[in-house]
Every structure is written in structure tokens, then in C-alpha cells.
Batch of 2 targets.
Target 1
Amino acid sequence: MAADASKSGKLVLYSGAVEATEMLGAALGCSVRVGDLAGLVGPLGAGKTVLVRGLARALGVQGRVASPSFIVARFHPGPVPLVHADAYRLESGRELVEAGLDEWLAQAVVAVEWADRVAEVLPDDRLTVAMSVASGGRRIDIYASGPRAGAIIQRLQEVLLHGDIGHRDLKFAS
Ligand SMILES: Nc1ncnc2c1ncn2[C@@H]1O[C@H](COP(=O)(O)OP(=O)(O)OP(=O)(O)O)[C@@H](O)[C@H]1O
Ligand SMILES: [Mg+2]
């Protein structure tokens, strides 16, 4: 994979295949810890759930990953548990808090689809993964809003540049 080695604390990637997006999720799974929250934003079909599938695989959790659209969140037990939440149908962030956001953060990695809908209750220091359809594939902007998330981006960049997780259809973009 060609190196961008951006020092800006932001990564921009292009995924040309479903498997490449899953690989990026897996690389993210190697870069996060319990208490980290990744907010996924982007339109219907952008690939948010595909990315979480890769994340779940890297964390080694149990259960099939699917859009948890009709429940607020799904808890996947495992060595590093994952909570996969979806804010698409929520009226307000309060519902996410009532569903247990603080408890999730205490014991799991938390991925929230449609995070922009509930931004007011999410930790200030979080990772945002913004996905959009571009040139037949997906443009994926990853940025941090604090030092903890900034460290995730650094680890993720290391994994993508020097780890053995990669895919020929996953590239740094700008
Ligand atoms: N490069 C790609 N990366 C991810 N998904 C892709 C890519 N190219 C095509 N797709 C397709 O786009 C769709 C992404 O679906 P996915 O359920 O992940 O979207 P989503 O963002 O979670 O949508 P929703 O908001 O409805 O939950 C899948 O049908 C997948 O096959
Ligand atoms: Mg989804």
C-alpha cells in the first residue's frame, strides 16, 4: 500500500471493494481499546456495517454483525467486547444514554452508526469515520477530536503501513 504517512491526525482512504472496507475495519480493530468510541457517519449503504464487521473480526467477538436498526445496540461478547449501536431511528442522544452508553464505554469498544444524530452525548474525544460513495467505491475520512482518538489514528496508520493487514483495493487518498 502506498504511504501517505500524514502527520495531520487525519487519514483519508479509498476502498474499492467490500473486502477492502472490511480490512480497514480489521486494522481499526487492532488499534482500539476498551473505552474507545468510533462514530460512523455517512448515508444509507455507505458501508458503515461492513466496516464494523471487520472491526468485530479483529476483536474476535461472537455473533453476527448486522445493522442493529431495530434495536439500539447489540453487545458482542469476546476478549475485547464490542457494542455495535445504531442511532438511525433514535429521537435524541438521550435514548443512547438510557440504553447504557456509559456502561458500554466501561467494558467495550463502542461503534455507533449514524453518530452525527447523537453527537451531543458522545465523548468529546472520539474517532469519526465518515464514509461516502466515490468513484464506484468508498471514500473514508477518519479523524480524531481529542488526544485519545489521535493515538488511535497513529496506531491505525502504523497497522496500515507496516502491519500485515491490507488489501490491494484499500489505498491512502487525499
Ligand atoms: N467499497 C465498498 N465498501 C463497503 N461497501 C461496499 C463497497 N462497495 C460496495 N459496497 C456495498 O455497499 C453496501 C454497504 O452496506 P452497509 O450495510 O455496510 O451500509 P451502511 O452504511 O451500514 O448502511 P445503513 O445506514 O443502512 O446501516 C453493501 O451492499 C456493500 O456490498
Ligand atoms: Mg448499517
Target 2
Amino acid sequence: MKYKSQIVAYWFFATCMLLLSLQVIYGFIMGFAHMGFDNLHSIIPFNAARATHTNLLVVWLLTGFMGAAYYIIPEESDRELYDVRLAYIQLISLIVVGVTAIIGFHLNWWEGRKFLEIPRPLDYLVVVNVLVFIYNIGMTIWKGNKFSTTQLVLYVGLLSAALLYLPGMISFENQTLDSYYRWWVVHLWVEGVWELIMGSILAFLLIKLTGVDREVIEKWLYIIVGITFLSGILGTGHHYYYIGTPKYWLAVGGFFSALEPIAFLGMALYAITMYRRSGRNHPNKVALYWTMGCAVMSFVGAGFLGFAHTLPQVNMYTHGTLITAMHGHMAFWGAYAMLVLAIISYATPIMTGRKLWNNMASMLAFWLSNIGMVGMTGAFAVAGITQVYLERKMGMDFLTVQKEIEVHFFGLILAGCLFTTGIVLYIYNFIKHGVPAPGNSLTEADEVESVPSLI
Ligand code: HEM
Ligand code: HEM
Ligand SMILES: [Fe+2]
């Protein structure tokens, strides 16, 4: 670690661990409700559990991206973070807004728009919070001694993500218009600007872990950014098929969204190629596992499973079913959750000075969570295909079908237990690192040379 202000990132990462644990608990509440055991209904109705589960996901991922930026930007800019105190204030206020939103969901204070359930007054606070963050890292870059592609792509990704939050705050009477602009946030985030954040964090990790020349890694980054925008912007049309928008979206959305997997395939090939060229035997193997895993699993979850329901002929049947949940889980996990877990695995030992990188707990955490997530995706797929067949092909009633597919959620719970064991081990290992203390962190030389590879 080059600068002591990078330690701010640790507290963002610790917050991620807490919010991820809560998210998983709400996943189980819904899993049991789907199985017919909706015992908590009077306190936590399904809609509240769902909004809490997905919003916690978005908040912990954003917290992780912010932590990553606070770690990466000073190092890439060659200076301390512009204002460390402001970063702590920003984290605390983010937690306060998040907790208020979650309590609000339980009291039926929500907007009912999937993924954008946070009530409007809190949206304004989110905007202020994010502006403070953007200002802090922006000033660090501005006052810094160095510019790099990785740093600028990360900044542009974060800034555009902040700006794209705004279309979701416009009020419409018309449901089609409301839905239309909701996708500017949801789709253009995960299939647009978040991919820039992903590409740049992956680039940083690959530079550090493989030792391949920055020029080579950053050249790939431009290509990926290009393909992402070329396919992802008009690819928004895959959400406009049947919501009351003009018919041309069937062709536009179908064509461009079918190209989107190429960006994710590019990302996977990029990571694999850099790994093969690696000239460095970096001792932190588990960070490399998460990095490579992210590149590959994002292609499976977003690229492959996204393509599976993106053509209008298919989406007509699968829209809004558990097929969407199947894809949503693996895509968010592979692309963004694994990315945040990768940077945490890389940076925590450096910040705390404890080299707990290749122990049994960290390796099992990687494998169990991934095998568990593959199982969960399979369970959603079986439930989803059955749902589509019975409800959309046979014309059976929604609730009758939900009863028929209850049994498949037993599989989801089992796979979820495996997944959760992995996450518990990950958090256990994170806690075992302890908190960073001044003077304890590893220097770049310690990091690469002093520890022999264990694998
Ligand atoms: C043990 C862990 C988990 C369980 C049991 C679980 C279960 C569930 C259930 C039952 C739903 C509701 C599906 C419906 O609408 O009927 C859901 C939604 C969702 N979950 Fe999870 N989940 C877990 C972990 C995760 C993780 C780790 C992620 C992300 C990385 C995630 C992302 C999502 C998303 C994005 C949705 C919304 C899907 C959609 O839009 O249809 N979940 N989850
Ligand atoms: C990391 C990237 C991605 C993530 C995190 C992601 C996640 C999600 C989530 C959570 C939803 C449900 C949204 C909602 O209903 O509000 C969704 C819907 C959808 N996604 Fe993705 N996705 C990604 C990439 C892709 C890609 C590359 C494709 C196409 C090739 C795709 C195709 C679709 C389609 C067609 C829907 C609509 C499903 C429906 O009609 O119910 N996704 N995605
Ligand atoms: Fe999309």
C-alpha cells in the first residue's frame, strides 16, 4: 500500500460484509415463503423482504465500488486521498440513509418500483452522498501527480452511474413512461456504466496480480468499453418489448442486446489471456481466484443466461418469471458481487498487514459460495421453466402455479445453505485480518516478494 489514506477502504469493505449478511437472511425469508412457510408474513411481507433483499444488494455493491475507488484512486493518482474525514462522513451518512430505507420498507414506506423502491426524499440524500464521494475522488485525481486509463475509466463509470440515478427520480403519471425511464437506471447501470467500473477494477487487479504491462491491459479496456456501449445502450430495448412502447423496439432491442454477451466474453478472454501471460507469482492466490472467477462467471450469468431470454420470441413467455430471478442471481453474483469480493480479498491483507490469503477458510469460501450459487441458479431455472410452461403455455392461474412449484424451493434452500457457508467463511476470514493499524500495512515489495507461493 502506498498511501495511508487508502485505509478508508477497509471500513467500506466492512460495511459490505454486514449488508451482504443481511441480504442473505432476507433471501432465506423469501425462499421459505416460496416453499409455503410464510410465517413472518405479518411482520415482513414478501414485498418488504424482496425490496430489502435487492436494495441491500445494490447498496453493498455500491459501497464496495466506493471502497474500491478509495483504495485504487490514491494509488493510481500518486497522492493521498483529497479529504479523508469527508470519506468517513460520507460512509456514515450512506449507512444512515440505507438503514432508514430498510426500516421504511418494513413500515410500507416505499415506491413499489422494482429496484428503485427507496422513497423520494431519501433519493435526494443518496444524490448528495454520491456527489460528495465523486467530489472527493475527483479532487484526488485532479490534484494528483499521474493520470491513468484505469483510473479515468473507473471515475467516468462512477460519475455516469451517479448521473444515471436521476432519470429514476422523475415522476410520471403514465406507467409506460415510468417504466421506460426506470430502465435507464436499472439497465444502463448493470449493462452499461457498471461494466466500466468492472473493467477498470479488473484491470487494476490484473496489473497487480499478473504483473503484465499496464499498456497491454489498458488497451483491452478500451476495446471492452467500446463493445459495451455499442451493444448495451440500444440493448435497453430488450425491456421495451411489451410495455406499450413502439414496435420497432422488438427489432432494435433483440438485435443489440443479443450482442451484449460479446462484452462479457471479451472480459473473460481478457482476464484469461492476462493470466496466461503472467510473469509474476503473486502470493495472494485467492484474490486471483476471485478475479478470474468474476470474469468467467459474469459471462455465464450475464452473457449466457441473459441471452437465454433476451430475444422477443422468448421474452414474451419468460418476462417477469423466475427465469428472470435465475439470470438476476448469477449475473449480479458473477459480475459485481465477485468483483467486490475480489478487491476485498486483494486489499484487506495489504491494509491490515495479515497475510491470510491462501488458508483453508478463504479457499473454501470461494468454492462453496460459487458451487452454492450455481445450485441456486439451477433451482430457479427448474422452477422458472415449470412456471413458464404451466402459467404461460397451459394458461394456469398464477397462484395455482406458485403452489405447484413450491417443491423446487427446497432445492434453492439447500443450495442457499452451501452458498451461505461460503459467505460465512469469507466473512470469518475478513474479521480474522483485524482492523488496519498505522504502520502495519504491507508495502508493494512485501506483497510480492516476501511470501513464497503456497500453491
Ligand atoms: C442464500 C442466499 C439467497 C437466497 C435464498 C435468495 C433468494 C431469493 C428469492 C427467493 C428471491 C425472490 C424471487 C421472486 O421474485 O420470487 C430473490 C430475488 C433476488 N435476489 Fe436473491 N437470494 C439469495 C442471495 C442472493 C445474492 C447473493 C444475490 C446477488 C448476488 C441475489 C440477488 C437477487 C436479485 C437480483 C433478485 C431479484 C431478481 C429479479 O429481479 O427477479 N440474491 N432472491
Ligand atoms: C452484469 C450484468 C447483468 C446483470 C447484473 C443483470 C441483472 C438483471 C436483473 C436483476 C434483471 C431483472 C430486472 C427487473 O426486472 O427489474 C434483469 C433482466 C433482464 N436481463 Fe439482465 N443482467 C445483466 C446483463 C444482461 C445481459 C448481457 C442480457 C442479454 C444478453 C440480459 C438480459 C436481460 C433481460 C432480457 C431481462 C428482462 C427479463 C424480463 O423480461 O423479466 N441481462 N437482468
Ligand atoms: Fe437489460
